[in-house]
Give the backbone structure.
Amino acid sequence: MKLRAALTVLTAAHTPSAGRELTHRRLESLLGRCDRRNDPRLVEQILTELKAPTLRQPRQVEAALGQAVPGPLCIIASMHQAVDGLKEELGRTNEVAQRVAIRPSSAPIVEAPKCPVV
């Protein structure tokens, strides 16, 4: 869950200036969407880190970040959606297997070849 929260915050604050503009209420809302509990200390910590002077960059660098960062964030979000879909499908498959009393076998699918004793 922490990774999803980080992804959500980074998507909203993909440049240092966007991070500085993030409000307390907006950050709480973003974290709430990720099922993170309402933790005022966490919100303050994130806001403090996003407003750190060391994150400030020249205007051209911020513009480049604004162009470069959303692409990988979209890819990561798509990967999260694919994993969620896989989990959902596996859950449905498991439900069907339980209804028809199919149990996974503990035997290996393919037996390993026997090694000759030297």
In short: The helical segments are 2-12, 16-21, 24-33, 40-50, 59-68, 70-99. The longest helix spans residues 70-99. The CA atoms of residues 11 and 70 lie 7 Å apart.
